[in-house]
Amino acid sequence: MTTLIQLDHITRRFQVKRQQFIKAVDDVSFDVQEGEIVCLVGESGCGKTTTGKMIAGLLKPSGGQIFYRGQDITTLQGEAWEQYRLSVQLVHQDPYASLNPTHSVFDTLAAPLRRHKITVGEAATRAQARELLEMVDLTPATDFLDKYPHQLSGGQRQRVAVARALTVKPSFIIADEAVSMVDVSIRISLLNTLLRLKREMGLAVLFITHDLALAKYFAWEGRIGVMYLGRLVELAPARQLVEAPQHPYTQVLLSAIPEADPDVTRTKQHIQLRSMDVPSLLRLPSGCAFHPRCPCFEGETCEQVVPPLAFFRDGSAVACHPVQRERKLDRVAEPTRAD
Amino acid sequence: MNQLTNAAMSQRTGAPTLSVKGLTITYQAKRGSVQAVRNVSLEVQRGEALALIGESGSGKTTLGLGLVRLLPSTATVRQGELVYRRTVPGTNGGPGAVTEVDVLKLNGRELRQFRWKECAMVFQAALNAFNPVLRISDQFGDTARAHGYLQGKALTDRARHLFELVRLDPDRVWRSYPHELSGGMRQRVLIALGLLLEPQLLILDEPTTALDILTQRNIMDVLKELRQQLDFSLIFISHDLSLAAELADRVATMYAGKLVEISDVYTTFKNPVHPYTIGLINAVPTLTAHKDRVSSIPGSPPDLIDLPTGCKFHPRCPLADLRCRQEEPELVAVTGTDHWVACWNWQIARRQLSNGGKGGAA
After folding, report:
1. What's the pTM?
2. Domain edges within chain B
3. Rg for chain A (alpha carbons), in Å?
4. Fewer CB within 10 Å of terminal CB in chain A, N or C?
């Protein structure tokens, strides 16, 4: 496997008042291999969507670099920039908003096909649109081509949005809460379609969600990254992260999630936070941003020193002082990835 | 002596707080009439928590609005009966008197009295439920005044008590404007406002949707505590099965406007017999489940204007046969009087589909 996207100490600030900035994303580093699935999870305001937008090239990082196949994307120009933008496609959360209500499914798919000269001539465009619909399991495709968004269900609309992302043959899909508006009973089939496309087309996927159970399902073979107040606090293989979480924040999150089994959910131990108040991004706590709430708070070091993301031999990475002290011997300097 | 409202204790003792019989609600749309709630009958016992689960468009919110007569003008209650009972505690701890209210016959002043005082509803979008230019204290004051409830110091004390119950700092919240509070705080203020007039029934519409995980946990803990400390019944509407698993005593599953299965929460999750309930439970990935145990229900929810014939779930059901396509099943008892299902083939479903049904429900 080779590295498709690499984030190197990415930071993004937003100005809220004349002299006031917030760091929506702060010093985030991770990579996505070709054909890999990485899920970013976290609560609202943790910077997961901003991270996705920076990778898609919709926002410029305030600091740090993003590499696409080894090239810094800020140095890309003209043709190369366009190629990059095409190879990274976004699927948005709300298919009611992301599809133009006055365009038929065919119009929606034909626009990028024509614009980027992927197909020439009406017949070829129609054939390609049909094929795309079949790829996202909207069959028989001819039934859907001339429909308008209002004639489709939420799940079908989201499939059209995925098909549109595929028109330009991307190598990387960023799906931002792409199934959270879709009915529960059909969420899994939409995810399965994405998984099949990933397998068949070798797509890499960055899946942004707040639902850890969903992240575990989708990134079964991939990795999950957990963000808190702009920072990546833990990154690990998906099942490992859910079954043996290391960062106190990840542990708290997992312990708080109710389960669809009355026996399990009513006997589950909930880790108590030291404080329920979520700090404002305007006044981030010093040191580890989680320290005022952290159940494993250890005093001075946590209060004063921002813990860097430390990598361990088992392929996980954790930004937490106590964890890093305990696992001192497991630490590796460079991320060891199965290349 | 209603200090300890244990649902299991008070269940089946005396008349239910709410009984709904054959409630049918339609919306008038350009294309035709939307069959949002079809012939729904259910009872809510005193002190009980009932979860209404189902996907969007299953009619659960419409049913909730119907129960407090807050339906929009495009909606019509076609038929049905809605009886609400309030138990007035008797003197010297003796058996209390029960007053019955036929909710569908209420008008004007009586209806306004019924709403909020007897039965309150907390809506999904917590920000929109407040008047943005009024302080929380004024919103409480308005509500109390409109219903001739406590005033002045007594009101402040009552509100303080409620804020403490929902784990809010009364000093901070009382003088705040809605926008100064976070989503989770607003939701808790709304729950407190819902309980202000000591209603016997509180309806919560998607109480934790759109809230972060830790906030959601907090709301769930608050609701659990409230139920232990105050005497009220709870109906909560949610598409989130895990919420029902944690908070409900009984679970009612809705599909295409109809109640398709109702049972105690353990049966719903361990021994469901309706193919839709089974499918819905299997469709939700959990933290512990293996990937291969999760599967989608094929097809998509039906068009409520143009419903399929027979059982409305038949186009998506793995067990559908000729009868399912022609005749719509009504609720029948599975075991005793506690577990009801509307499915022709529930016995086959229990054998073939339900993977939790090892113990056998019979």
Report:
1. 0.87
2. 1-106+200-208+233-362
3. 21
4. C
**What are the tens digits of pLDDT across the range B90-137?**
666 566 678 888 888 888 888 888 888 888 888 876 667 888 899 999
Q: Which tens digit of pLDDT belongs to each residue from A160-178?
A: 999 999 999 999 999 998 8
Distance between CA A137 and CA A132 in Å, rounded?
A: 9
* CB-side neighbour CA atoms (13 Å) of A15: 3
Which residues constitute the domain of residue A204?
A: 3-101+148-332
Do the strands B32-44 and A20-33 form a parallel or antiparallel pair, or are they unpaired? unpaired
Tell me which residue of B140, B189, B193 sits closest to B169, measured CA to CA. Answer: B189
Residue A269 is given by DSSP the state: P
Which one, of B149, B2, B155, lies nearest residue B90 by Cα? B2
Q: Do A153 and B288 touch (CB under 8 A)?
A: no
Q: Is residue A137 part of a domain?
A: no
Provide the phi-psi class of B92: left if phi over 0, else alpha when psi is between -120 and 50, else beta. Answer: left
- pLDDT of amino acid B1: 35
pLDDT in tens, B323-362: 999 999 999 999 877 899 999 999 999 888 776 433 333 3
Q: Which member of B167, B284, B298 has the closest CB to residue A260?
A: B284
Q: Can you give the pLDDT at residue B355?
A: 62
> Rounded CA gap, B245 and B51, in Å?
9
Amino acid making up residue B154: A
Mean pLDDT of B137-162: 86
Q: Mind listing the pLDDT tens digit for each residue in A300-329?
A: 999 999 999 999 999 999 999 999 999 988
Do B244 and B326 touch, CB atoms closer than 8 A?
A: no
Phi, psi of A56 (to 5 degrees): -75, -5
Residue from the list B55, B221, B285 with its beta carbon closest to the beta carbon of A217: B285
Q: From A146, A209, A176, select the one nearest A52 (Cα to Cα).
A: A176
Hey, which of A35-39, B82-86, B176-180 has the most confident mean pLDDT? A35-39
Torsion sign over Cα A324, A329, A332, A337: negative
Mean pLDDT of B266-289: 92
- Name which of A184, A226, A241, A275 to mutate to probe chain B: the one with the most chain B Cβ atoms within 10 A of its Cβ: A184
The answer to whether residues A58 and A180 touch, using CB atoms and an 8 Å cutoff, is: no
Tell me whether A188 touches chain B (CB under 8 Å): yes
Q: For residues B98 and B60, which has the higher predicted lDDT (pLDDT)?
A: B60
Residue A124 lies in a domain: no
pLDDT at A316: 94
Residue contact B301–A257, C-beta within 8 A: no
Write down the mean pLDDT value for chain B. 85
The partner residue sitting opposite A258, judged by closest CB among B243, B285, B295, is: B243
Q: Is A115 exposed, middle or buried (0-12, 13-18, 19+ CB in 10 A)?
A: exposed
Residues of A with CB below 8 A from B266's CB? 262-263
Say how far apart CA B81 and CA A135 lie, in whole Å.
49
How far does B79 lie from chain A, in Å, by closest CA? 29
For the domain B1-106+200-208+233-362, what is the CATH superfamily, name and number? P-loop containing nucleotide triphosphate hydrolases (3.40.50.300)
Q: Taking all residues of chain A, what is their mean pLDDT, rounded to a whole number?
A: 91
**B297 φ, ψ (degrees, to nearest 5):** -85, 130
CATH number of the domain that residue A309 is part of: 3.40.50.300
Inter-chain touch B55–A185, beta carbons under 8 Å: yes
